[in-house]
Write a structure and sequence with these properties.
The chain is an alpha/beta fold.
């Protein structure tokens, strides 16, 4: 597979400009529409802004490349107050608005393409919040930071949903994530498909290739 074409962009956001990186597949890929437009585009949300989370995080990079491998352009972006993005940290509320602004850009750029939404840690919790307002066709949450972002009242997404969790996570308590995930399974077909990585830590050291393969399998599963 050829490396994707990259575009560094500044997108309008609710608190000012948002720094973004768009990666676009450069070869014909499965899932592409006959006219060359992508069948889907991806948006990936990064980890906690106050603890070094950026669009360049290696798990975020891995998720974006999984999207690209499946033929979907991927947008990574910095939340408000991170990198060149304007504004300041807003405890997940404003960051959800940032994600929605990026999704709106993707839908304008690729009209008719399905949304694949993903996030890691804090960004995974934000992605679940954003899914309430911009329902994705597929959702990927990796080690969701449900103890770091307010989640009461969030309705479980009704789309296919993958939740990946390491059982040796040193940042987000795995038992808390699994208990929360169980509460999201409110009806048949609603709730996450859970994939546990035995021995996996929060940052998936040494397991990124396995993580990418897991996400690709989920995205390509019909």
């Amino acid at each position: 597979m050829k490396p994707p074409r990259s575009e560094r962009l500044t997108l309008p956001g609710p608190a000012g400009s948002l720094e973004a990186l768009v990666e676009i597949p450069v070869s014909d890929a499965a899932g592409a529409m006959p006219d060359g437009a992508p069948a889907a585009f991806g948006v990936v949300c990064h980890p906690h802004p106050l603890y070094g989370g950026t669009l360049d995080n290696k798990v975020v990079y891995t998720l974006a490349r999984a999207f690209v491998e499946c033929g979907a352009p991927a947008i990574r972006f910095n939340f408000r107050g991170v990198g060149a993005s304007a504004g300041r940290y807003d405890e997940g509320r404003g960051e959800t608005e940032d994600a929605l602004a990026v999704i709106a850009y993707g839908r304008q750029r690729w009209p008719g393409a399905a949304l694949w939404l993903a996030g890691f840690s804090f960004g995974a919790a934000v992605a679940v919040r954003a899914a309430q307002h911009a329902p994705p066709e597929k959702l990927v949450t990796v080690a969701p930071g449900i103890t770091r972002v307010e989640m009461p009242g969030v309705v479980p997404p009704r789309c296919p949903w993958l939740l990946v969790q390491g059982d040796a996570d040193e940042v987000i308590e795995p038992a808390a994530v699994l208990e929360w995930a169980e509460r999201q399974s409110v009806a048949p077909g609603i709730g996450p498909q859970i994939r546990i990585f035995p021995g996996g830590g929060h940052f998936f050291h040494g397991r990124l290739h396995e993580l990418r393969q897991t996400v690709v399998r989920f995205l390509t599963d019909k």
